[in-house]
Amino acid sequence: MPVVTTKSLLDRAFSEHYGVAAINVVNDLTMEAVLAAAEQARSPLIVATSVKTVKSAGYEVIFAMWQEMTRSISVPVSLHLDHCPEREVITRCLKTGWNSVLFDGSKLSVEENRRQCIEIVQEAQGYGAQVEGEIEGFKRVEQVTDDATFNQQSLQAAVEFVRSTGVDVFAPAIGNAHGMYKTTPTLDSQRVTDIVEATGIPVALHGGTGMTPDQFSDLIARGCAKVNISTALKIRFMQSGYDYITEHPTEYDPPALFVYQRAQVLDMAKEYFHLFGSEGKAW
Ligand code: 13P
Fold it and tell me: Distance between CA 105 and CA 87 in Å, rounded?
């Protein structure tokens, strides 16, 4: 099974109660490593790219890598654009061949977010692609103070947004944040259940790095069919580089360093497939 739609990955995970990891990659090495992990674990996978990565590496370069690396892949995978407030970046990714995009209109009023999101859903449909929506935005852990309440819209506002835009997956704020939590976050898991019951669509769990296995299991069972991981990959990639160089201070052999980093990132991805219950779920 080669590249498939993000919708087909999520709908199946949603009905079978497992989570598909959406892992943010930063370059060719990390893209190849997570795809190899998916093959080894027979797991479906969403490869996510940030706007920053897309702009710095180049749309065509990323997509050429993606096409080449998935040419003979035997597990279902898709390519996703993570948090993107910029319409022209969304359009360019859709035109180039990304399978889904997250329109991040969280800094807009809900009304304006909805208006633009409806246009993007229509635009994406023209490419057979899907759209994730959000109305609240996610902080970085550094911005979260212990007594901070997160910026949450009413359940009704969230449900109306999903219904009126036709997004395929929705990313609610439930006390989650991007980055490495200082302590285990307190999450509003009931909100996931409420949104899933009212809309019938899968929820995207953001800020996955640092959540506990129990939190993942609970939230996935409630309908978080897409589980986002970014910081953990950056940490594993960088830390393995530091470790390798510390161990081999006078070795000037980049490919040897890359082999070590690849193995570390691959192991990390497999750990998440195991936690999310997606191992062996390839079809
Ligand atoms: P982490 O960086 O906390 O893993 O969050 C990833 C994410 O939600 C990307 O959108």
Answer: 10
Four-residue CA torsion sign, 11, 12, 18, 22: negative
Q: What is the pLDDT of residue 149?
A: 58
Residue 236, ligand 1, Cβ within 6 A: no
Q: How far is the CA of 148 from the centre of ligand 1 (A)?
A: 19
In a domain, 282, yes or no: no
User: Could you list the residue range(s) of the whole structural domain that residue 107 is in?
Assistant: 6-276
Which residues does 62 contact at the CB level (< 8 Å), separation at least 6? 49, 53, 54
Q: Is residue 136 part of a domain?
A: yes
**Does residue 104 form part of some domain?**
yes
Q: In the annotation, is 253 catalytic? A: no
Atom of ligand 1 nearest to the CA of 177: 3
Is 281 contained in some domain?
no
- State pLDDT tens for residues 68-122: 999 999 999 999 999 999 999 999 999 999 999 999 999 999 999 999 999 999 9
Q: Which of 11, 82, 104, 267 is catalytic?
A: 82
CATH of the domain at 260: 3.20.20.70
